[in-house]
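During the no-cost extension, the postdoctoral fellow (Dr. R.K.) reprocessed legacy sequence entries with the updated structure-token encoder. One reprocessed record is reproduced below for audit purposes.
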Amino acid sequence: MHDCLLISEIVEQICGHFYGITGGPHCLAVLARTCRTFYAPALDQLWSDQAGAGVVNLLRCMPSDLCEFDNDDDGSIRLLRPILPTDWERPLVYTHRIRSITCYFPRPDIWTALSASLPGDVDSVFPKLTTLHLLHLSMDILLIRTLLSPKLASFRIHFQASIPNFSFLPSIPRICPALKNIELQIDGDMDYGRSALSSCIQGLTSLESAWLHIPNLAILEQLSQLHALTSLHTSLNRTLSNDLSSLSAPLLPFIALKRLGIGFKIEAVTHFFRRCSGAPLQDIEITLASCSPTTAIHMLYSALREGCSHTSLLSLSVEEGTEDIAETGDDAYAINIQSLRLLFCFVNLTSIYITSYVGFNVDDGAMKELALAWPKIKLLQLRFRSHTNESRPYTQLSLRCLYTLAKYCPTLTELEVTLDATVIPKGPDIESQPVIQSALRDFNAGKSSISQPTIHVAQYISELFPNLSELTTCRTLRRNDDPDELERHSQEIAYHNLWMEVALQIPVLTATHEEERSWAEE
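Re-encoded structure tokens follow.
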């Protein structure tokens, strides 16, 4: 045997390579059976991740007269007799190798039998377990206590609200002191579980990431004071919104928070950011429940300006919901430049994604303001989402805005805007100061209007963005030849077909421009 195979790190890397290829698990099993050097590392790789398998593989290690299996998931198992403590003899050889378990729809009878049959001298079935994901749990979570490990770092669980289940939450910090990531999805009334959830959060002093519904202000304040918390995904509620609105001063420090996903009605989200104070956020995703008036959007953006660090924010996403949708073109619901100017303070933004069911009251001059305010922008998506079949795009943008973006945003790689492409811009600035922006790869024209001949649009775009490789619209990947779709979305599909002509013409024109530049240099 080669001397290199005496180095444990090299052997582990070899096993890791096999695990990631087709047929790798079979190769690892062969190595474990035939080579003493590879025995332990190969088994470690084979057993380390039980994603989707749950406890099926453990049951397969038990005596053959115990279960019947139809498929490789918990739902296909049929117990033929009670599980005995002696049945654990072989599985316990492998359980210390398991580091990750993911189980969908765990069977209560199986888990009850496993928990009840565990030998009394076993403190933790999976002593090295670091990741545990249990989804759609229909049983009391007390049954999973034996699965928890002091080394558990990531815990995701979806369960029903009940007094026994809530009573288990306060014990999680004691059993899993190293827990860094927690995701709690709770179905049902959480009113009588607030105290238990509060105790759980209070004890998780090393928590770095949390994904949960926040029922009251006390729990929100606890989360905001965690020194290691860098990521939070949550949804608010009416009670919490009222509590936040009644406060007179910022009370949510979030001194380490970098990523935030938050959703509910716009008033609640606005109150949340008003209670923050210079949060060092880098990535914000806001999902609103409804289509919001311009005045409400203005207040939300103002709260973002007041509550977040102006230099740390890199990515901002604000998506409107489908409730209370206004009519397209209604100025009272359009997102205007006055509101967007409130976001100009975030000078290091590289990604902006904003949706509207009504439209954007933004013209070419306003787009120039955006481009000058965010010169580092890489992704800019102002997505128009109409709720009617033939809503006319509410836009004041023309093709000239593409020239502006090409001139002032040299790193822009992905763009989505709805504009009027029926008129080709002309003027002394465009003719005397040609611009070539080489970064843009992806342009989504949304619901942009366009007319024949399309060659002029293709010529204009190809001169600005020679490396554009993908041109799409709101109808891309839709059934545009379906009779029902053609009847409901005839105008959008007509525009889409014209834009696809542009997409075919651009590569040819780009190659021509490149040849012309080469000749000029000679």
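The chain is about 35% helix and 15% strand. The longest helix spans residues 490-521. The remaining legacy entries will be reprocessed before the final report is submitted.
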